[in-house]
Amino acid sequence: MKKLVLATMTTLLAMMFVTAGAASAAVPSDRDPIPPPTDYWQDKGFILMAHQGGEWDFPPNTLFAYKSAMNLGADMIDMDAYVTADGHIVLSHDLDARKNSDLTDDMFGGKHDITDLTLAQLKTLDFAYKWSPHDGSSTTPWRGVATGDVPPPTGFAPNDFKIPTFDEVLDAFPDTPINIELKQVGALSQEDIDNTAATMAGILAAHPGHDENVIINSFGQEMLDAMHLARPEHKSYSGSQDASLAYINGQPITPTPVAIEPPDYFKLSGNWLRPVTILKPWTDHDGYQLYVWGSDHDLAQDTDPFYAKLIEEGADSYNTPSPITLAAYLCNNGIASPDGSPRCPAQVCPEGQTGIAPDNCVDIPVCPEGTEGTPPDCTPIVTPEPFAKLRKITLSPKKATVKAGKKKVLQLAVSVGAGKPISVTVNLKSSNGKVKVQRKVKLTVGSGKTVKKITVNLTRKARGKAKITASSGMFRAASNIKVKPAKKERR
């Protein structure tokens, strides 16, 4: 993927190993850890990173590639950035726009470098024009979609096949982890580097919330220093090529990184070495992640044995050109998503179990019958006591003879079943207007029977009979009173 870098890395590593010896890869026992500035990247499982969105499977560095890779199981997208002539950050692995687009030498006055073209000029180009899948299954299948000559696939638009801006990516992927390389190629002046950093800082300021989930990297230390100066609050960096090489010789990386991104192989004195095994003791000591990219040296690159070896060595991520292939491997081998959840339907455990299928499913612990909670914190199930229910009301005596002008005390009995006490309202009524009784009485009644005295007042003019009725809902009771006339007063 990045062959131009490999020669420089090999030279620097050779110098280091000659001066310090290969044993310097061991971390000195008295060296204190230098932890990353954020724990956002800590405690994650293996990350499937789509290099350029997956250039073997999709037109590289296009929104179509990024969206497709994420839809097919990528956990993170990788991209490369340049600044256009009019100050926009756009995404392309190659400086020369002719590499992937339909740009020809007779367009735009012969200009072809992305840094010499405006965004408007670049947006007229078809960045899927020359792409064909790595497996040779078809030829230029997406040519013409960007220009409107061919209809886009369902769910996509022509712009998804054009060169994207970094603003467009952040808008389309607000919560997706991103790895972006700020390209430092050719004879970039310090002013160019500072302008790139300032432009990137402005984009991050305009899209709050990306100072942790966007890793900024560059092969040149000058670019990272300028970026750190332009946006000191940004927390996620990868070590530059120069800093990463000096790292295993005891020198701290600045700005402090969250990850180091080596190739899978480098050549030293005629021998191909595995940098993951050299860097792993150091990154574990400091808490940095190891995100590996393919050097194209291994003929088995992006095959199952290749993936298995990287994971066995301790790589935390592989920046793959084929997210389709790596997603299938991770799914088939029970390697979960970074958050520990199933990566695909085949990894979902049967009902009643948790974990990752097929080999790491365990029964979900349950509390014994009669208890509740999650083991070991099981507690007895307490069934709330139900409220009591009204069963009967009575008035006694059922019959009475009372002299006019006198009082009679009746006994109101309210009976309820077992349960919590309830409030009962009993309505009272007299059929005789000269025989008075209170209109209602409220009682709080627990299990059993509660008795309340009810006073009936007879006026001196009371005559005949009176029926005193007590009612509550469907329950009724009555007491019949015969009025005995009062004696006439002597004059």
CATH architecture assignment of the largest domain:
Alpha-Beta Barrel
- Low-pLDDT runs of 5+ residues are 3-8, 14-24
Major sheet attributes? 8 strands, mixed
**What is the CATH topology classification name of the largest domain?**
TIM Barrel
Average pLDDT number: 92
**β-strand amount:** 25-35%
Instruction: Report the C-alpha radius of gyration, rounded.
Output: 41 Å
Give helix % range.
10-25%
Explain how this protein is built.
By secondary structure, the chain is α/β, with parallel strands linked by helices. The chain has 2 domains: 346 residues, Phosphatidylinositol (PI) phosphodiesterase (TIM Barrel, Alpha-Beta Barrel); 95 residues, Immunoglobulins (Immunoglobulin-like, Sandwich). It is built from 10 helices and 23 strands. The strands form 6 sheets. Strands 1, 2, 3, 4, 5, 6, 9 and 10 form an 8-stranded mixed beta sheet that branches. Strands 16-23-22-18-20 form a 5-stranded mixed beta sheet, with no helix packed on it. α1 runs parallel beside α7 and α5 packs across α6. It is elongated, with a radius of gyration of 41 Å.
How do the helices and strands line up, and which of them pair or pack?
Elements: H1 3-20, E1 47-50, H2 63-71, E2 76-83, E3 89-91, H3 119-122, H4 166-172, E4 178-182, H5 190-206, E5 214-217, H6 221-230, H7 241-247, E6 259-260, E7 266-268, E8 271-273, H8 275-286, E9 289-293, H9 304-313, E10 317-320, H10 323-332, E11 353-356, E12 360-363, E13 371-374, E14 377-380, E15 390-396, E16 399-403, E17 407-416, E18 422-430, E19 435-436, E20 440-445, E21 448-458, E22 465-472, E23 475-484
Parallel strand pairs: 1-2, 1-10, 2-4, 4-5, 6-9, 9-10, 16-23
Antiparallel strand pairs: 2-3, 7-8, 11-12, 13-14, 15-17, 17-21, 18-20, 18-22, 19-21, 22-23
